[in-house]
Specification:
This protein is of the alpha+beta class and 86 residues long. The protein is built from two helices and five strands; from the N terminus they run βαββαββ. The longest helix has 6 residues. It starts with a strand and ends with a strand. The structure holds zinc ion (ZN). Zinc ion (ZN) binds next to helix 1.
């Protein structure tokens, strides 16, 4: 029986994933059975992981506060033409 690995469609969103599908988990499914489309635990959409090679994901922070949380220095251009460190 093949083993499939499933992972959350939105692992970055805690409201649409649970600790299980955020990490991904393996399920043994017989070939005749439909692949699952929803997490067994939280019922949120999951997708089958095709290979261990991860698809490049958007990792850029979405906002200034995210960027700062991620340890980036955020510079903003001020009217005077100088960059102010936020
Ligand atoms: Zn889940």
């Amino acid at each position: 029986m093949p083993i499939y690995e499933y992972i959350a469609e939105h692992p970055e969103d805690p409201e649409r994933s649970c600790p299980m599908c955020r990490r991904g988990y393996e399920l043994r499914r017989s070939l005749e059975r439909e692949p699952i489309t929803r997490c067994l635990y939280c019922k949120n959409p999951v997708r089958k992981k095709i290979s261990p090679v991860s698809v490049p994901r958007l990792t850029a922070p979405l906002s200034v506060s995210d960027a700062k949380k991620a340890g980036f220095t955020v510079l903003e251009k001020r009217d005077g033409g100088e960059y102010e460190k936020l």
